[in-house]
Amino acid sequence: MMNFKKLFMVSSLGIVLTFAGCGTQKNEQAANSAQNQTKQETPAEKQKTLTIQEGSNNMKEVIKQMKTELNNKEEDKVIKTSEGLEGNWKQFEDNIKAKSPELYEKIEDPLHTINAAIKVKPLDTKTLNTNIDNLDKQLEQLQKLQF
Prior knowledge:
Layout: H1 2-47, H2 52-71, H3 75-90, H4 93-99, H5 101-117, H6 125-144
Helix pairs in contact: 2-3, 2-6, 4-5, 5-6
């Protein structure tokens, strides 16, 4: 009877350790997979850089489209279109930050407000229009600068 208990305990311990080891291996594989995906995405993002002129022109086009959609009360389209603002900004914002930190902050302020305002339902069109206009003015200032 004593041998049976010892054999049962040793077997149970072996099974527990085996399953614990398999779980750890899967977690490590998942972590390695996530790290590899991050490493692959980073160089691709760095390759997508725009000149200041290209980036500001793209953002102004997005702003123009958003204004039209806001006037037409197409909330879902406004939300979808607004993604283009941040997407374009990310591609050249570091360049602006290095060359003109003051203007960088003036662009970031309305951009953050727009990103926050599109998350509120129903959309606050007054706030959005005000900040879109402000962002447009700052982008015009940016285009006037010679870098």
